[in-house]
Every structure is written in structure tokens, then in C-alpha cells.
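User: quick one, sequence for these C-alpha cells?
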């Protein structure tokens, strides 16, 4: 069995440093290192193809384009709904006697703001189930059987 090992197995014992220096110092050849491409150039090349990105939404791009056409001359604003809609109005503040000020857990509104808020709440439709909260009376439907107590009073009334 003939083993011809041209290079040593361990890199530390290699004496190729001298050979590399001789190859670099050859007078006929000019060795110029090729400059590496910078990361910004690579990213710029890849960023031009944004349409294939996972993070882009073509519908959002179209909507932004339409909005930019509308906003050429005047900046559009978003209509904000009252944030404190669910807070109750401070009764003492409406009378002018609330001592808590900003620490009050209720809302402090000017009369003009109260009128605006009332107009907004009037526009919303409240379901009829919430409007009509009357007492339940037994025996008003045909399928219900009234309790014995009500039946006694009914029979005594007849």
C-alpha cells in the first residue's frame, strides 16, 4: 500500500508561507486585490425589486397613491370620534362645584361640548330592547302558566 501524501494533514506544520511569498514577489505579475462589493450596493440592487417583497401590500400602495393625488394641495385629516364617549359627565362640574379637577373620575365638559355629544348620541340608533325595560308580568302570554298566588287573586277578583 503506497500512500503519497502531498500535503501534511496538520496545518500548523505546513511550510507554504515561503512558497506564497515567492509567488507574490514574481516581478512579471501584478497582484491587485479585487475590491469587495459594499453591502449598501447589494441592498440597493435588491431594494429596486420591491414588488416581490412579503412586506408590501399592493392594495395599500394603490390606496396611498390615490390619497397622495387628493393630498396634493391640502393635507387631509382623519375624523376622530370622542375618546371619552363611555365616561359619564361630572354632575358637580355641571353645577360648578367639582373640587377634584383633573383627578375627577368623571368627564368635565363645557356646555358646547355637551351639546355636541348629545347630537352625536342622538344620531346613533339605540335598539328597542334596551329602550323598553318594563316590569315582567306573569301570565301575559298564552303559553305561560301564572303562579298560584296570582291565580287566587284573579279568582277572588271575579
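Assistant:
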Amino acid at each position: 500500500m503506497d500512500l503519497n501524501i502531498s500535503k501534511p494533514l496538520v496545518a500548523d506544520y505546513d511550510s507554504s508561507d515561503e512558497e506564497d511569498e515567492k509567488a507574490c514577489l514574481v516581478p512579471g505579475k501584478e497582484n491587485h486585490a479585487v475590491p469587495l462589493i459594499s453591502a449598501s450596493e447589494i441592498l440597493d440592487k435588491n431594494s429596486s425589486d420591491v414588488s416581490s417583497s412579503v412586506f408590501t401590500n399592493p392594495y395599500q400602495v394603490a390606496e396611498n397613491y390615490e390619497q397622495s393625488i387628493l393630498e396634493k394641495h391640502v393635507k387631509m385629516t382623519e375624523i376622530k370620534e370622542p375618546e371619552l364617549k363611555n365616561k359619564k359627565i361630572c354632575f358637580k362640574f355641571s353645577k360648578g362645584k367639582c373640587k377634584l379637577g383633573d383627578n375627577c373620575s368623571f368627564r368635565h365638559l363645557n356646555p358646547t361640548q355637551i351639546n355636541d355629544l348629545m347630537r352625536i348620541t342622538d344620531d346613533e340608533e339605540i335598539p328597542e330592547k334596551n329602550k323598553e325595560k318594563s316590569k315582567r308580568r306573569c301570565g301575559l302570554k298564552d303559553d305561560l302558566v301564572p303562579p298560584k298566588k296570582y291565580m287566587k287573586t284573579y279568582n277572588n277578583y271575579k
